[in-house]
User: Which sequence fits this backbone?
């Protein structure tokens, strides 16, 4: 399970600006972000490929809908907000699937986005965490190819990288 760090806190703070009926977190990990979503959404669904992470989430929040899966492909419901703090560092996922998102650091993020876009309500938003260490220009190009618009809504500079929350509509 991914232990919450600066990126999780940045995303949990960002979701506080949004509200609606249905929210989805892809890659719930410790459920810190899903827990924050509960305050402004009637129904919160959290999914993760790690079943033990979901067991932990169930201990913390009995009112979450939890699904063990990779990405949003199993869902057919439309969501007002979809969020993810995906593995975003350049590296091979088999070395640590919680932090490495592929050779460019964006491959897992792109997979999550492609599974999430069909589930987004009109007027809804997707929030993702990204790192300056990954290939952000290629990620933005891919978002534009999906006919979406992206803007950075928050960021945190650290000595070795800048992490950002990107809003996609």
Assistant:
């Amino acid at each position: 399970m991914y232990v919450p760090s600066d990126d999780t806190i940045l995303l949990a703070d960002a979701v506080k600006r949004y509200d609606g009926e249905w929210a989805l977190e892809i890659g719930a990990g410790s459920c810190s972000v899903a827990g924050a979503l509960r305050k402004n959404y009637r129904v919160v669904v959290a999914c993760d490929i790690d079943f033990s992470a979901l067991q932990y989430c169930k201990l913390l929040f009995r009112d979450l809908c939890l699904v063990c899966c990779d990405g949003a492909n199993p869902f057919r419901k439309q969501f007002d907000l979809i969020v993810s703090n995906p593995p975003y560092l350049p590296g091979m996922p088999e070395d640590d699937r919680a932090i490495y998102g592929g050779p460019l650091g964006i491959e897992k993020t792109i997979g999550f986005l492609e599974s999430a876009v069909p589930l987004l309500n009109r007027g809804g938003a997707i929030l993702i965490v990204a790192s300056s260490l990954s290939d952000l220009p290629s990620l933005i190009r891919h978002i534009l190819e999906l006919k979406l618009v992206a803007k950075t809504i928050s960021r945190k500079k650290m000595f070795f990288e800048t992490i950002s929350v990107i809003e996609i509509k």
In short: The chain has a mean pLDDT of 94.
